[in-house]
Fold these 3 entries.
Entry 1:
Amino acid sequence: MTQPAILALEDGTVFEGVSVGAPGLSVGEVVFNTAITGYQEILTDPSYARQLVTLTYPHVGNTGITAQDDEAHQVWASGLIVRDVPRRPSNWRSQIALPQWLSDRGVVAISDIDTRKLTRLLRDTGAQNGALMAGEIDVEKALEAARKFPGLKGMDLAKEVCTRERYEWTEGQLDLDRNAFVSAESRFHVVAYDFGVKLNILRMLAERGCRVTVVPAQTSAADVFALKPDGVFLSNGPGDPEPCDYAIAAIKEFIASKIPTFGICLGHQLLGLASGAKTLKMKFGHHGANHPVQDLDSGRVMITSQNHGFAVDEATLPANVRVTHRSLFDGSNQGIALTDAPAFSFQGHPEASPGPHDVSPLFDRFVSMLEQAKA
Ligand SMILES: NC(=O)CC[C@H](N)C(=O)O
């Protein structure tokens, strides 16, 4: 039996649809993602914590859900908003249908709303806070919950979503012919900060010969140095980078020690902050899998996967930080490199999960840095 669901926005707009997940109330910042595939990777990406994600692609759930495609061991998005979910999925890898998977995990989701109208509204007004309600509906209560959500600015979520315990990672990428993840021989030891890390990042490091020790967000630089790594990786993650003072302090020490350091997304923003730059909240951010980004060194344009609502403010970069990449959508910063330390970072997602692989050579650049430092 279909259950009703609503999406209430802080500006008072209410969308009525049907529930395709668990009953209940869930609040967060509403963001739109324009990728046409990868709904499972998006929902399990820890960077979406406290966000309600709407997908502009209208048919979501067609290929079902496969455990191997999880980017983390749980759904991190606070809710899902879509136009249409198929009656049944169809794919040889599918293990479970999207609505069942969502409701098993207590995730509130709505379908049958006009997602184009919602996206236009968010594009015009900027990302808004909202509330999803499914099952028993109380419009006033949902509107109040949407207005009460404090917003992501100033919210430190990295320390909330990260691993509690340190762990080792050696598994490479999925070999579909063998239906197994392949392990590679390791030549380097990398300490990866988990601010909300996506598993495909760890796999891409492992595939390139890195044995990875994943550590909690609040691990001190001294504890990292004690592990004697060849390099440090700074992961993606949810929330505002600015309040993550523990991470900024640790990264300052990595820069000073000249250990090879590579950051992705939140990790990029944190490297920027540790270098002395500032970050800003964008109007509606970048969330999609077809964003053009220019590599300023080569002039090449790459199509990239993106998921961020904050950005490094280029106007605040100190003299020892070079801009390496820029978004061709809005000219915002997409990459930096220090001129006096082997440290660089990228705002988008070179792990492309989901998305195109144009930026994956950045992992090779990090590995060359590890090689050079070791030589
Ligand atoms: N994917 C990420 O790491 C996102 C970084 C940060 N939370 C932002 O929204 O900008």
Entry 2:
Amino acid sequence: RGPKSLLLQTRPLPKNVNTEIISKQFTASPALATIEYFRARRGPFTPEEKRGKGHLMMASTHWKVERFVAIAMTGIMPACLFVQGATMDHLLSTFVYLHGFWGIDGVLKDYLVKFVPWIGKVWYLLAIIGFAGLVNFNYNDVGITKAIQMLWSL
Ligand code: HEM
């Protein structure tokens, strides 16, 4: 976001913001500001951002959903070996795909969006095409579990 980055803004925060609670506002020399520009943004976040303005859910709720999905995968992965079929294939693909999607999405948002603002749209497009491919594979081929087993037995 260049010089408009929240980190580099010097305008005062709204009166209702408790600066003891949120991160200190950034003020620095141009040299330090350049270094700061290349760091991933970890705040200060505006109250609107914390509430998840423009998003479907609060960031903390999203974080919990991500962890729920990651933990669920530890059960779904071995379960697929014992209970096989289309339902398990779709469950496995959906959970692993969601996890991988959010994982990469987070890395892109933390490190790349700042330099390539449209990268998120490319990622969403790739992700939709990729997921469609997986669903197609589960419907019209041996399914993801069987495919992994076949790969292992090579
Ligand atoms: C049961 C297996 C797995 C578990 C329990 C698991 C768990 C986790 C957890 C807890 C995180 C968050 C780490 C953090 O925020 O500090 C994470 C990040 C991530 N995971 Fe997994 N994961 C598993 C398998 C996978 C697989 C199969 C993929 C690839 C599709 C994957 C891709 C990622 C990515 C891209 C990140 C983000 C890395 C980052 O932020 O630097 N994970 N995983």
Entry 3:
Amino acid sequence: MPVENERTRFLKMTGSGNDFIVLDNRAQGISPEQGRELARLACRRKLSVGADGLILIENDPEVDFRWRFFNADGSEAEMCGNGARCAARFAHIKGIVAKSRMSFRTLAGIIEAEIKEPRVKIRMTPPHGLEPDLNVEAEQRSFRLHFINTGVPHVVCFLENDRALEEMNVFHWGRLLRHHRRFQPAGSNVNFALVEDANHMAIRTYERGVEDETLACGTGSIASALVAAAKGMVQSPVEVRTRSGETLTIYFDNPSTGAAAEFSQVYLEGDAKVVYEAELWKETLRE
Ligand SMILES: N[C@@H](CCC[C@H](N)C(=O)O)C(=O)O
């Protein structure tokens, strides 16, 4: 049983439709292995709380706190943009960090956050590994993909219009590309993106570790905006419409375009809302 207590308090939170179970692990001592198991069991929809991921807030000697982030399938991810905004708001609501500006440790590096209730703006770690224009084949269909790591790995596939975005079978093609040999062993999140004008985009994302389309993906929205900026299609700030209909705002400095494009000062801003506070009963943490 991953949680020793009979009942564990948690907040259910949503970052623009990406939903998370967030709990204070400063005293509970849930180990990474137990966290994996807890995520896998508690994130199951209809059988338990149901969520895209689990966030454990823990003490850190150098910054305000650190987190561990687990996808719904129990895999641990280096970063999650929407989850990071929820974690910062959780820490503020729970009095773990009284000030509205804070910093916390993730496996991808230190994230800075500013609470603007209920919005949260976070400063990301530097994106890296841009590889534009990769031609990838899946089931006899060719995709032009652009890879970038914005804390976790992402590929971006640009579509030409609203209809193409609406009709894209994200579950089918996203799953195939996410597991494509080109992106192994880590695999990749897969974003289908539409540039509407120089400051507006719409995206749909197939998420690694959730193994489905989610209603929003922060690092995926950033990846899509940065690749579009590298190609000279957009400029900061970029408003990204997510599948939930909510908008994420991406800010960045982009001094150069093309394959060697560089980015600094990358920020993500959007809502991070509490759905409810509750106690998790052990009885739903069974197969
Ligand atoms: N939803 C996230 C990304 C979470 C991690 C991802 N599923 C992975 O394993 O790479 C976001 O908002 O960034």
